[in-house]
């Protein structure tokens, strides 16, 4: 899932929202001082396997990406635990006037702990309040990214089908699974 476009959610809304177990998390805007934490997951080829970008190999390149793409993004948040250090990020990108696409990435050390699920749940629970014109939150997931598919299903996203030969990713044409969440859907 891509994290390169924009949708606006008021920072004060989600920056104060926290979750309950399994892990207490909160979302906050990323800052340039997060570069070292960003490098932890952005250099991991297991983490970036299904991302549109390659693993970062230098701190300078990561700083440039933060400055040029992430910091100007109107709605991209760091996923943080109690210590406020980012362990991943999540974004909502507009597709058109009524649709947004959710994208997220999480350090592999935190996989399987319910953190991505809780971050997606927080965003899905707030986005329609902040953007009442939005009628649909979408997620496109590589057919081989079973973990991400499970995250979306646990939150209550509906699997709509497979988009055959839908995306060119890292030298290959890939099938993608389309998921959606509507304002009338229930969070799980």
UniProtKB/TrEMBL annotation:
Coiled coil: none annotated. One of its GO terms (molecular function) is acyltransferase activity, transferring groups other than amino-acyl groups. SUPFAM superfamilies: Acyl-CoA N-acyltransferases (Nat). Gene3D superfamilies: 3.40.630.30. Residues 25-183 form the N-acetyltransferase domain. InterPro entries: Acyl_CoA_acyltransferase, GNAT_dom. Residues 1-22 are annotated as: Disordered. Residues 1-21 have a biased composition (Polar residues). Transmembrane segments: none annotated. This is GNAT domain. It comes from Arabidopsis thaliana x Arabidopsis arenosa. The lineage of its organism: Eukaryota, Viridiplantae, Streptophyta, Embryophyta, Tracheophyta.
